[in-house]
Amino acid sequence: MRFDTVRKVNEFFRFATREDIDRILSKIVLSERQSRIFEMFYIKRHNIGFIADTLYYSPDTVAKELNRIRAKIAESL
Description:
The protein has helices at residues 3-15, 18-27, 32-43, 48-55, 59-76. It is mainly alpha-helical and 77 residues long. It has a single domain, classed as Orthogonal Bundle (Arc Repressor Mutant, subunit A), CATH 1.10.10. Helix 1 (3-15) crosses helix 5 (59-76). The radius of gyration is 12 Å and the shape is globular.
């Protein structure tokens, strides 16, 4: 994942309202797993380790899914 993509997505979430987030979510398609990870990471602000432990995934799996999620979000920004 390119650093500028991560920066762009993080900057969006730094100032995003719930309406902004809902607008982005309406433009992208997330799998059920990605939706759960998205909610926990971006809405509830849990870290990768916590998400991995809670959902019974490896931290690497969570990180890879976050990269896929960020790529989808970056395309829609």
